[in-house]
Amino acid sequence: MPLHAVHIGHVIGHGIVFDPQSGSRLKDMDFDALLASIPRLFELLDERRIAYVLVGGIAMRVHVAGRNTQDIELIVPAESLARLPEIRVVDQNDTFARGEFGGLQIDFLLTSQPLFDLVRRDHARRERFVERDIVCATVEGLLLLKLFALPSLYRQGKFARVEDYEHDIAALIRERHPDTERIFQELSRHMPASDLAEVDGIVAGIRRRIVESRDRFGGRDR
Known about the structure:
By secondary structure, the protein is α+β, with helices and mostly antiparallel strands. The protein has two domains: 1-137, 2-Layer Sandwich (Beta Polymerase, domain 2); 139-222, no CATH class. 52% of the residues lie in helices and 17% in strands. The protein has helices spanning 8-17, 24-28, 31-47, 56-63, 114-122, 139-155, 159-176, 180-187, 193-215; strands at 53-55, 71-76, 88-92, 96-101, 104-110, 124-128, 133-137. β3 and β4 (96-101) form a beta hairpin. The longest helix has 23 residues, at 193-215. The chain is globular and about 50 Å long.
């Protein structure tokens, strides 16, 4: 069950306000327009019958306490972007796209990547948010996405994002106790064996740290 009904507008607004790098974006931001754009975006997705799934930082907040974020991340079929002319697409490749809608930044993960499509099909359910009910990735879906991304982030030297992703993975494992054996079975069909072994080692290290933290100073107070 989700922790609580997440207010997407508040999470994104706080992410912008408390980011010291927001600069001119914060100065020019129309927060009323931003808040209005969020429910309207999901109304459009439902009206156009687009098979989306909410992922990323907002979806994380459904399952564990997390940090603020400044954008919305969605898994969608690539062809669905043509059915959303209201969204201005500013960048796109085979598996990712970025769009703008009423001051809202949207990152799209496209189902041309088979693992993204797997999460959309098999690891999503409708959750209650303050704005409305939204189809959101499950704990297992979020872990699949974050574990799948780790090898690429390491290779690109994006170590700040590596730290964020590993923190999120640890939080999901510690708080929600997912079946990681099943998750790795699914990952094995989408990752090279060498990458899978490295990611398995990362998760094993996370599990060790969780146990060590719980046992430190004699464990929990009795």
